[in-house]
């Protein structure tokens, strides 16, 4: 990992994936001026898909969710560069790739200090031709083999001791080869204490609530009796 520092910001980047545009690569305006915006997706904010010199990428600005987020939208308390959200997510993604969990390759992360606070952005590989599970299930049901694969991927994540604190079906992508990808690792971390199993169950409970919520909200094609069981059998086996 390389770094580019100036008085109030650091950009961490993978020099094999980006070099020419490092300085501006976390500014959506830069990609817009270059005519290199490929599209966008809506989450807490807008995720921009951009064409970098080596590969299509997803650019996200860190934003808070919830009520507090309405007041203080994108500023975080600064307590050291290596504690910033973008840096933390960058190194966590690199760790997960080594652990062979399917997650996007990080390209660059930026933190900009503003007094006592900072703002942050991350640029990751765009998973090619992938759709998130909510989008997919709004159109079609998926088979039990697919649910087992999702279970297996979450199991790999947990075997790597990573707590995904926002594991929901917006953050699981399926590509054209039926590969399962897990995204959105803001605030996620490696659990040091191996004996403490509750966090794993917490992730699983949250995922189940996400299916149930989208069943009500968007009438996704999902059946708790069969589909959730298939997920669990992939996860436990
Ligand atoms: N690396 C990626 N490849 C493909 N799509 C992505 C990628 N990252 C994000 N997306 C899309 O953008 C949406 C929002 O991004 P996400 O990282 O989940 O941020 P947030 O939920 O905080 O807004 C995702 O649900 C997904 O549809
Ligand atoms: Mg998300």
Automatic annotation (TrEMBL):
It comes from the Bacteria. InterPro entries: KDO_kinase, Kinase-like_dom_sf. Gene3D superfamilies: Transferase(Phosphotransferase) domain 1. GO terms for cellular component: plasma membrane. The active site is at 166. Pfam families: Kdo. GO terms for molecular function: ATP binding; kinase activity; phosphotransferase activity, alcohol group as acceptor. Signal peptide: none annotated. Keywords: ATP-binding, Cell inner membrane, Cell membrane, Kinase, Lipopolysaccharide biosynthesis, Membrane, Nucleotide-binding, Transferase. SUPFAM superfamilies: Protein kinase-like (PK-like). GO terms for biological process: lipopolysaccharide core region biosynthetic process. Pathway: Bacterial outer membrane biogenesis; LPS core biosynthesis. It is found in: Cell inner membrane. It is a peripheral membrane protein. Its EC number is 2.7.1.166. It catalyses: an alpha-Kdo-(2->6)-lipid IVA + ATP = a 4-O-phospho-alpha-Kdo-(2->6)-lipid IVA + ADP + H(+). Belongs to the protein kinase superfamily. KdkA/RfaP family. NCBIfam families: PRK01723.1. HAMAP family: KDO_kinase. Catalyzes the ATP-dependent phosphorylation of the 3-deoxy-D-manno-octulosonic acid (Kdo) residue in Kdo-lipid IV(A) at the 4-OH position. This is 3-deoxy-D-manno-octulosonic acid kinase. It comes from Vibrio algicola. The gene is kdkA.
């Amino acid at each position: 990992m390389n770094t580019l520092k100036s008085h109030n910001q650091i950009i961490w980047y993978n020099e094999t994936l980006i070099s020419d545009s490092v300085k501006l690569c976390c500014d959506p305006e830069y990609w817009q001026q270059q005519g290199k915006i490929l599209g966008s997706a809506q989450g807490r904010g807008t995720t921009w898909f951009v064409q970098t010199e080596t590969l299509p990428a997803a650019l996200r600005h860190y934003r808070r969710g919830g009520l507090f987020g309405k007041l203080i939208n994108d500023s975080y308390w600064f307590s050291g560069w290596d504690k910033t959200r973008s840096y933390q997510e960058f190194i966590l993604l690199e760790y997960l790739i080594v652990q062979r969990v399917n997650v996007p390759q990080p390209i660059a992360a930026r933190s900009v200090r503003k007094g006592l606070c900072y703002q942050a952005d991350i640029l990751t590989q765009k998973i090619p031709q992938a759709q998130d599970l909510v989008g997919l299930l709004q159109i079609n049901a998926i088979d039990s083999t697919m649910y087992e694969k999702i279970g297996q991927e979450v199991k790999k994540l947990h075997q790597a001791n990573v707590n995904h604190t926002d594991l929901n079906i917006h953050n699981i992508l399926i590509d054209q080869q039926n590969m399962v990808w897990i995204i959105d690792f803001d605030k996620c971390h490696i659990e040091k204490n191996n004996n403490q199993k509750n966090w794993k169950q917490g992730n699983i409970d949250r995922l189940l609530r996400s299916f149930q919520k989208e069943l009500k909200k968007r009438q996704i094609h999902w059946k708790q009796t069969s589909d959730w069981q298939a997920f669990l059998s992939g996860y436990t086996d």
